[in-house]
Amino acid sequence: MSEKKLLILNKQQIQQKLDRMAYQILEDNFDEEEILIAGILPRGNHIAERLKTILDGIAPFQSRLLTIELEKQSSSLSANIDFEVEECSNKVVILVDDVLNSGKTLAYGFGVFLDVPLKKLRTAVLVDRNHKSFPITTDFAGVALSTVIKEHVDVVLDEEDGEEDAVYLR
Fold this sequence. Notes:
Blueprint: E1 6-9, H1 11-28, E2 34-40, H2 43-58, E3 62-70, E4 79-81, E5 92-100, H3 104-111, E6 120-128, E7 140-144, E8 153-156, H4 158-161, E9 166-169
């Protein structure tokens, strides 16, 4: 017996949301020379790559992609990063993930930058589920969903899953 899935966003809608988010990031950072886009592996990094590609086409500033891998099951912050955190000093960082559920992943992502004086730290997610256990808000969200806690949001990206882009609720 197959599980029921409700399509929330199709490929075209995901692209529209990412385009809108990129323009919001541009408006928020118009006077900057460079911004850093930090994607949380795995799917947050794919979203970050797509945002960077859009921004490279529309923004006067440079954008650089950073990658963060978090040990999400750990009770303390454990992260692998592909950059020196000091490089972020006095810069704008956009922390990107696919889905904001409890806020734990983004809270751990914030932890990477705690010892560095940033100009600005913003968050961007494709789906905000509104089930926060941590005091985390999104600055740029593709779509906000009010779901029940037992429901699950699946973000399918062709880079990761080999299937056409979609967001499902199951």
